[in-house]
Amino acid sequence: MEKIFKNSEFQNLIRLPGKVRGVVFQTDAEYIRQSKGEEGLAAFKNGLKKLGYLVDYENIKGTDWYPLGLRVVSLLVAKELFNWTDKDIEDMGRAAPKYSFIVKMLLKYFLTIAMTYKESPKYWVKHYTVGKIETPGYDLKKKYFLICLKDFKTHPIMCTYLGGYFITLAQYLLKEAKNYKVKETKCMFRGDKYHEFVVSWE
Amino acid sequence: MDKNKKILNEESQRLKEDLEDLEKYIREFSSFLPLAVCMINPPKIIIDINKAFENLTGYDLLGAIGQPIKTIVIPENELNTLLSSARKERQVKSEELTIISKKNKKIPVTVSVSAREDDKNNLIGYFLAITDITEIKKAREGLEKKVEKRTEELENSRKALMNILEDVEEARKTAEDEKDKASAVVANLSDGLIVLDKEKKVFLVNPRAEEFLSVTSKKMFGKKISELEENERMGPLSKLLKEGLENVFRKEINFGVTLTLEVTTERMKIREKELGEMIVLHDITREKTIERMKTEFVSLSAHQLRTPLAAIKWTIQMLLDGDIGEITPEQREIIEKTQKSNERMIGLINDLLDVTRIEEGRYLYKPILSDLGSVVRFVINSQEDELKRKGLKLEFSKPRDNLSRVMVDVEKMRVVVQNLLENAIKYTPSGGKIKVSLKDNKTEIEFKIEDSGVGIPEDQQGRVFAKFFRGANVIRMETEGSGLGIFISKNIVEAHGGKMWFESKEGKGATFYFTIPVKKEFEEFLKEF
Questions:
Q1: Which terminus of chain B is more solvent-facing, meaning fewer CB atoms within 10 Å of its CB: N or C?
Q2: What pTM, to 2 d.p., does this model score?
Q3: 3-class secondary structure, B290
Q4: Spatial distance between the Cα atoms of B328 and B348, rounded to a whole number of angstroms
């Protein structure tokens, strides 16, 4: 853990402003349980514990708010612990909506591309207390849509995670599509004013 | 304000807790549920599944969610129809479809669908409950195969039955045709036919019988013949049949000159099963008429011939007696031959007259109580010269005790014995032997005459008692004879209530027998006259 977490960086991360719904921890735990088993999950919890955070995944409330910093740290711990690549983090992001109880409750916003696209900002605020989603447009003929995430500068790992997340949301809407891809065309960590994700498919 | 906020927060917290509890409850319930369930959104993409769905399809949650349902549940068009139907009718609809598992295995399933709508009646997805019916299907297919097999068997049975029925129908038609033919034969039969059942009651009368007996079949049905005696023509028939149906063979019933019927009865059997009896009435009126005319002609001719023959006889006798003048020995020899021929001719004419009398029923009998032995002795004595001339030895034997006396027409009985003895002499070569005997059997007297003559050819023995019969061997011998003697003799014997028969072997001689009844039988015979 020490390799990736310099004390100062950890302190900065943990102090990130904003909160996130407990459901993200639930989906993380479920993903780890499914891919690494109960032992993997135990190791993951132990990793966080070493950092001073005892996360009771069994009793996390999906609708409760938790520190955003903890959410970022937990992703970094998982990546470090399981030696995951960015692709693995993206897959974790892709899996998150599938496990999410809240997503299932919000599926009424996923009736059409247009509706989903329009309702995405609402969807965001149901999960995060910081940052906001903007939807500048999509093109079904050219097979892509854009999602802009503003005022949300946490850690690059979140960009990877959210990219996967957006792919799954697209997957819910495009029944004839395949080979989804996501590309972060703009990133606040690369000096841009906001994050811009282009989700495309074939 | 703070108080209200606090209340709102508390309420919000309770709601969140309730939601959490609900989520947990649903998750646990969903995991526990053995029924495979998945949820799809309006674009028909899987957005949630339960554990049973994972078990059934082999897809885990991550693999299944996000996939179009059509990639797992097929055929797509039937699934779409089912979804539309559930949405349209707003009720759970089910259909048998197929799951393509992750391992590409086809699993027969029943898919039940319920459409989900929000509070504005917008479609927000569908619940799909999926039941594996592999075992049911196997059982059903097994059952269907059994049913199919059984159906095939039944179909084969039906075909076989139809064939049998066709055969039966064909047989029935054939039988019907045969019956029609038989009915037509019976109806058009030139003979009258009356059929009696086992109780001797009439159950079939053909039109010819109705015509013969002047009675309708309706009146005869179900009645015994004896019950119909009152009818003019049924009376004689009934009388005849009283003698016993089985004994009637070619017996005649005469209804004046207009109708003579020959009656024969026959027992009807099919495979040893008694069915009844039939009475055949054959119209012999024409034959009888012809026979009568013939007899009349013969009788007339014989009478006409006898007169000139008698004149010839006397003329010849006068010539031989020299009443007309002396004749030379050569002339005498010729005249004697002529006399013999004339005598033969007279004998033949007499025989013919006897035959005609017999046939006309005019052969008169004058029975008297006589000793048959004296009759036989008389005839033997009359033939002694001829026996000597031919050098034949004759033995006559009879019981020592007196024979029972019999009622006979002595003249006719002499004719019988004479005919038999003359035949024996005629057909026995010189030096031969003739044995005549009488035997008293108490109830009848038996006459027997045995010769060592030429005998009767075996193939001609059936015609011995017919008129004008002469054996081929005796014709070759150029012996004299009309062929009427045996016929006349037999008729005389039978008119006395007796029987006549013979035994013979060609070249070894012949033995003729006849019997004449005594006492009771004779008394009955007498009643006839």
A1: N
A2: 0.49
A3: helix
A4: 30
